[in-house]
Design brief:
Elements (H helix, E strand, L loop, with lengths): L7 H30 L14 E2 L20 E7 L5 E5 L6 E6 L5 E6 L8 E6 L13 E4 L4 E8 L6 H11 L3 E4 H5 L23 H10 L10 H9 L15 H24 L10 H4 L3 H11 L8 E5 L17 E5 L7 E11 L14 E3 L13 E6 L6 H5 L1 E3 L5 E10 L1 H4 L9 E2 L5
Length: about 450
């Protein structure tokens, strides 16, 4: 692409907006590639149109996504909607669950679950962009996608940590069923969609000009929405038009430099926004909820890929301790979190606090195999007045009562994310707030 006649400032601005817009798309592809495309990867779920269930709670070895939870073991699936819709069937449920389906940019197209659709059995149609076929009988609801490839990170509540609890959970997960629409109604399958020439995932493509090449390929599965037309047209003018033919090597040196500077500007905008984000409000949701707030969607994808919207689960955490240290560091201090009796998290379903090491945002190996703590944790010791004090530190507390309330931390920086499933209105309107992460004396 020649730089003659191009406004290089406009190129930089488009590249910056393109990075903010496209980063969730590539983060999603990073996961989709390992799970649905690369059959040599241990995380491979079996391709498109299949569930892979994980009845065990998350552990430090689980690195598919950042900030994994171990409250609700996962059920992964990916669907290709190009040839025909799919039908998702669920059993009658005795517990909390949610199957949230997301578009390529991680925006949710809808939810099947205890909060959204109830706990009765049902069949749900997942239809691709522009599908206008006849609705079959017996369908409880329709979820309409804006992209031709979608995914789902399902969660199902694990009632306890015994082998029997895990067996019961596995039985429920195995009743989640995926069928193409033709199989559901008993007709001949339509012609299969062609197999794409999937670009191999390389980590270096998450930042540089290779980012734009992968984004160009993926936008071929993302029809231009009216609300995104302006940005999509400006990206197309730079060669990122959804044809998968963007070639960084063919760029004029001036254009190449302007694109690189713009991408760096976009990354910096997101880092600034992440530093200010302390809760999940406005970061996850449907397209109606998020609109075209690309920055919020990008921050959500970076801080907690596939996080749930606040009406499903509220997320909050500490980016600094009470002494102003950012991030908290258990190598130099011990910490406490004290909930007054009237300040315990208000949840319709349940709540938990999960600790992650930084910068990876992954679970931490520890001698008691405890990765989260919350209202389901057996043996918690409440204060005489009904309050609750948690002890967040690297070394084992000497007091046995404190061990019962110990959330083990790494010998270094960390963060703690609180999840409230089915949050009370007081949580959503800000009336209820998290207490401080109170820092003890500096041991250094």
């Amino acid at each position: 692409m020649s730089g003659a006649g191009l406004d290089l400032d406009a190129v930089r601005e488009t590249a910056a907006q393109g990075w903010v817009y496209g980063h969730p798309v590539l983060e999603n592809y990073r996961t989709m590639y390992t799970q649905a495309i690369d059959s040599t990867d241990p995380r491979y779920v079996g391709g498109f149109g299949r569930f892979r269930h994980y009845p065990q709670p998350s552990r430090p070895r689980n690195t598919d996504i950042v900030t994994p939870n171990n409250d609700t073991p996962y059920s992964w699936c990916w669907l290709d909607l190009r040839a025909e819709p799919w039908v998702v069937s669920v059993p009658a449920m005795d517990r909390y669950y949610v199957l949230p389906f997301h578009d390529l940019d991680t925006t949710y197209l809808g939810y099947i679950g205890a909060r959204a659709t109830g706990q009765a059995p049902g069949d749900y149609l997942i239809a691709g962009h522009g599908w206008d076929g006849e609705m079959p009988a017996g369908i409880a609801a329709v979820l309409r996608a804006d992209t031709q490839l979608i995914g789902c990170l399902g969660r199902t509540y694990l009632t306890g940590l015994t082998d029997q609890d895990v067996t019961q959970l596995k039985s429920i997960q195995n009743q989640y069923r995926l069928r193409p629409l033709s199989a559901f109604i008993g007709t001949a399958a339509p012609p299969a969609a062609p197999v794409p020439a999937w670009p191999r995932w390389r980590e270096e493509n998450s930042d540089g000009l290779g980012f734009l090449a992968v984004l160009d390929f993926l936008l071929g599965f993302f029809p231009v929405l009216p609300t995104q037309r302006d940005l999509r047209e400006r990206l197309a003018a730079l060669g990122v038009d959804g044809t998968g033919t963007f070639d960084p090597a063919a760029l004029d040196p001036q254009v190449r430099t302007a694109l690189e500077e713009g991408l760096a500007r976009g990354r910096a905008q997101v880092e600034d926004a992440k530093a200010q984000a302390v809760g999940s409000t406005g970061l996850f949701g449907t397209r109606d909820q998020l609109g075209e707030d690309y920055l919020a969607r990008c921050v959500g994808a970076d801080k907690g890929l596939y996080g749930l919207p606040e009406e499903e689960a509220w997320y909050g955490g500490w980016i600094a301790d009470s002494a102003g240290n950012r991030p908290p560091n258990a190598a130099t201090r011990d910490y406490t979190v004290h909930y007054r009796a009237d300040q315990l998290p208000k949840a319709r379903f349940f709540w938990s606090a999960t600790l992650y090491r930084l910068p990876e945002r992954l679970l931490v190996d520890n001698p008691i195999n405890r990765y989260s703590i919350g209202d389901r944790t057996p043996g918690l010791v409440y204060d005489p007045d009904g309050g609750l004090t948690l002890y967040v530190q690297h070394t084992r507390p000497a007091d046995p009562d404190r061990v019962a309330n110990w959330l083990p931390a790494p010998d270094g920086p960390f963060t703690v994310i609180t999840r409230i499933y089915g949050p009370d209105p007081a949580v959503l309107d800000g009336t209820w707030t998290l207490p401080d992460l109170t820092a003890g004396p500096d041991r250094g």
